[in-house]
């Protein structure tokens, strides 16, 4: 699937699917788009402690993918609603996770990506 024709609020985490049709068969391939806003989120922690590099961030109610936190405490997320809860995990247990309540700004930044920050507690 060529994602260039998708609307700004849709993303495809996977654009190819391998199928093995038999002679004369018609095969249906399923794709699971992530519908919602694209957000570059900077995570802020208490006392300026960083979110560990490589932590996994996922948006509540969005099963189509997650983002990986970079060394600048930023994560790129797709399928984000105007008000969303983001859970960030970097290990097992309550001490190795935080939750950020995200409010998407009204206007997107460059390339239609919304840029914002949120406290991760």
From TrEMBL:
One of its GO terms (molecular function) is fimbrial usher porin activity. One of its GO terms (biological process) is pilus assembly. It holds the Pfam family PapC_C. GO terms for cellular component: cell outer membrane. Residues 40-106 form the PapC-like C-terminal domain. It comes from the Bacteria. InterPro entries: Fimb_usher, FimD_plug_dom, PapC-like_C, PapC-like_C_sf. This is Capsule biosynthesis protein. It comes from Salmonella enterica (Salmonella choleraesuis).
